Amino acid sequence: EIVLTQSPGTLSLSPGERATLSCRASQSVYSSYLTWYQQKPGQTPRLLIYGASSRATGIPDRFIGSGSGTEFTLTISRLEPEDFAVYYCQQYATSPTFGGGTKVEIK
Amino acid sequence: QITLKESGPALVKPTQTLTLTCTFSGFSLSTTSVGVGWIRQPPGKALEWLALIYWDDDKRYSPSLKSRLTITKDTTKNQVVLTMTNMDLVDTATYYCARWTYFSDSGAYHFDYWGQGTLVSVSS
User: Fold this and answer.
1) B17 and B86 in contact (C-beta within 8 Å)?
2) Which residues fall within 8 angstroms of residue B104, CB to CB, at 6 or more apart?
3) How far is CA B78 from the centre of its chain?
4) Which residue of A has its CA nearest to B43?
5) Engineered SS bond to B98: which of A72, A97, B111, B119, CB 3.0-4.6 Å?
6) What stretch of H or E contains A47?
């Protein structure tokens, strides 16, 4: 089973700043199989980025996914108030696994 | 419009079997390259994938929970049912179902629509 490790656990930033979230896989993941979800407090997870770098429908272009192999990154170029949330990466080879999440909180 | 909704008991006792139903609309589980999955989230913790069922009745389970899980579908009712045996206190969580869809541009599957989740507490 592929284990996804997300870092940092919590990111404290101000609106307008850049956020860089990391997702490291215990073995190589095909980029197409890497997905990012956003979960706001009390809400359902929302598909954000799929195929490592493609934005889902309606996702603003300040969300940028990148990476390959075992290292993937989600960058939020300029944080908006609505972006403060928890972000999860997820992969599937034969079966899905999720990372532990990164909380982006207001500094 | 695609919607999914989970239903089931809010409270179960340790050792009991949990049965959850996901009722969906706006898509069919008879359609090629579509599936439904179950994911759970203990309070304040991360998401954990549990099980998947595909349109062709292929089933996948979390290796760590495989012995306790069964997933089935009823295409005519647009429902997917998850059973989890031998419930324990640590199984207290919000349980989500989500559509698992093949995206042609990525060549891969993703959870694109999620239900609102149902909180299941395990307590004696």
Assistant:
1) yes
2) none
3) 13
4) A42
5) B111
6) strand A46-50
Q: Which two tokens stand for residue B75?
A: 């295409």
Secondary structure of residue A32 in the 3-state scheme: helix
Closest alpha carbon to A65 in A87, A36, A91: A36
Place of tokens 């099980």: B51
Option in A33, A45, A54 nearest B47 (CB): A45
Q: How far apart are CA A39 and CA A88, in angstroms?
A: 8
A83, A19 contact by CB (below 8 A): yes
Residue A93 corresponds to which tokens in the numbers above?
């080879």
Residues B49-105 have pLDDT tens digits of 999 999 999 999 999 999 999 999 999 999 999 999 999 999 999 999 999 999 888
CB B3 within 8 A of CB B26: yes
B122 within 8 A of B89, measured Cβ to Cβ: yes
Q: Is A9 on the interface with B (CB under 8 A)?
A: no
Of A60, A65, A67, nearest in space to A83 by CA:
A60
